[in-house]
C-alpha cells in the first residue's frame, strides 16, 4: 500500500488535502480513485489508514481512518557530513534515511569544496526514502554549520564516531562494548580533514576515532559503511533494547 508523509496532524476522521505534487502522484501516477486506501504518517502521530474521498489530480482529498501503528522513533543518531558534491550528498541523505539516522547535519570544514546545500531538496529526498522504508520518523536535514562551531557547542553526552582516514582502531573493535544512546558519526570532505581538525577531534572526550579499513573511501561509501557498522554494533540492528 502507498505510504505518504504529510505535515498535517493525524487523527481519526481528520480531513487531509495533499499538495499539488502529492495529489498528482496519487491520482495521475498511481491511479487512485475515490475509495482507495493509503497509509499516512507525519513523524509524530503514528501511521494511519486514509481513504481517498475526492480524486482531483491537482488537489485530492483524503479522510483519515484508523491507526495502524503508534509512533515509533529510531536510534538517536546524527550523521555529520562535510558538504560534498550535490549528487553524492543526495545519495548520503537517501542512505541515511534508509539506514536509520535521526538527522543529517551538513558541515563546512577547512577543506570543504562546496559551500551550500539545498536543504529543502535534501529534506524531500529524506522523506521520500522514509516513505519506502516503512519508518515513521523521516530524518531531519539541518542547515549547514561550520565544523568548528558545531564542536564548540558539542552536546554533552553525545558520542562522536570520527571516521578518520589517517588511521585508528577498526570501527567494530572501537564500538565493541559501547552502548546506545545519543551518537553522531562524522564523515569528512573529499580532501579529508586538516591536521588541526584531526588534532582537535582526537582531543575531545566525546570522540571515538575509527578506521573504516585500509582503503580510502569516497565520502558516500564511507557514510554508508560507517552507519552500517554503527547500526550492527550499537544501533537497532543489534536486536537489543
Ligand atoms: N583524505 C582523503 C584524500 O583526499 O585522499 C579523502 C577523504 S575521504 C574521500 C572522505 C571522508 O571519508 C574522510 O574524511 C573520512 O571521514 C571518511 N573515510 C574515507 N575512508 C576512510 C577510512 N578508510 N577510514 C576512516 N574514514 C574514512
The CATH topology of the largest domain corresponds to: Alpha/beta knot
Compute the CA-based radius of gyration.
Answer: 20 Å
**Number of E strands:** 12
Strand content: 15-25%
The major β-sheet equals:
7 strands, parallel
Name the poorly predicted regions.
none
At the fourth level of CATH, the homologous superfamily of the largest domain is SPOUT methyltransferase, trefoil knot domain
CATH class of the largest domain: Alpha Beta
The coarse silhouette is: elongated
Secondary structural class: alpha/beta
Sequence of secondary-structure elements? EEHEEEEHEHEEHEHEHEH
Quaternary class? single chain
- By DSSP (H or I, 4+ residues per run), the number of helices equals 7
**Mean pLDDT rating:** 96
Bound molecules: S-adenosylmethionine
Helix content: 25-40%
Q: Architecture of the largest domain, CATH level 2? A: 3-Layer(aba) Sandwich
Count of domains = 2
Task: Please give a structural write-up.
The chain is α/β, with parallel strands linked by helices. The radius of gyration is 20 Å and the shape is elongated. Strands 6, 7, 8, 9, 10, 11 and 12 form a 7-stranded parallel sheet that branches. Strands 1-3-4-5-2 form a 5-stranded mixed sheet. The two termini are 29 Å apart. The model has no long low-confidence stretch (mean pLDDT 96). Strand 6, helix 2 (86-98) and strand 7 (103-108) form a beta-alpha-beta unit. The chain has helices spanning 20-29, 86-98, 119-133, 147-152, 171-175, 195-202, 219-233, and strands at residues 3-5, 15-16, 37-41, 47-54, 61-69, 77-82, 103-108, 140-141, 145-146, 159-163, 183-187, 207-210. Helix content is 30%, strand content 24%. The chain is built from 7 helices and 12 strands. It has 2 domains: 3-69, Ribosomal Protein L25, Chain P; 77-234, Alpha/beta knot, CATH 3.40.1280. Bound molecules: S-adenosylmethionine.
Amino acid at each position: 500500500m502507498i505510504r505518504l508523509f504529510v505535515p498535517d496532524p493525524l487523527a481519526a476522521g481528520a480531513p487531509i488535502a495533499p499538495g499539488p505534487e502529492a495529489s498528482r502522484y496519487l491520482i495521475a501516477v498511481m491511479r487512485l480513485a475515490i475509495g482507495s486506501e493509503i497509509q499516512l504518517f507525519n513523524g509524530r502521530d503514528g501511521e494511519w489508514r486514509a481513504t481517498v474521498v475526492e480524486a482531483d489530480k491537482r488537489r485530492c482529498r483524503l479522510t483519515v481512518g484508523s491507526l495502524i501503528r503508534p509512533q515509533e522513533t529510531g536510534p538517536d543518531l546524527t550523521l555529520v557530513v562535510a558538504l560534498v558534491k550535490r549528487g553524492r550528498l543526495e545519495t548520503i541523505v537517501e542512505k541515511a534515511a534508509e539506514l536509520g539516522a535521526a538527522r543529517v547535519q551538513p558541515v563546512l570544514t577547512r577543506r570543504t569544496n562546496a559551500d551550500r546545500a539545498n536543504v529543502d531538496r535534501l529534506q524531500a529526498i529524506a522523506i521520500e526514502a522514509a516513505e519506502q522504508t516503512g519508518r515513521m520518523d523521516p530524518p531531519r536535514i539541518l542547515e549547514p554549520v561550520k565544523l568548528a562551531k558545531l564542536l564548540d557547542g558539542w552536546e554533552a553526552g553525545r558520542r562522536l564516531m570520527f571516521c578518520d582516514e589517517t588511521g585508528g582502531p577498526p570501527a567494530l573493535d572501537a564500538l565493541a562494548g559501547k552502548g546506545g544512546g545519543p551518537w553522531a558519526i562524522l564523515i569528512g570532505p573529499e580532501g579529508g580533514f586538516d591536521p588541526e581538525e584531526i588534532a582537535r577531534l582526537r582531543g575531545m572526550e566525546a570522540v571515538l576515532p575509527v578506521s573504516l579499513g585500509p582503503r580510502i573511501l569516497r565520502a558516500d561509501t564511507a557514510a554508508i559503511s560507517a552507519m552500517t557498522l554503527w547500526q550492527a554494533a550499537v544501533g537497532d540492528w543489534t536486536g537489543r533494547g
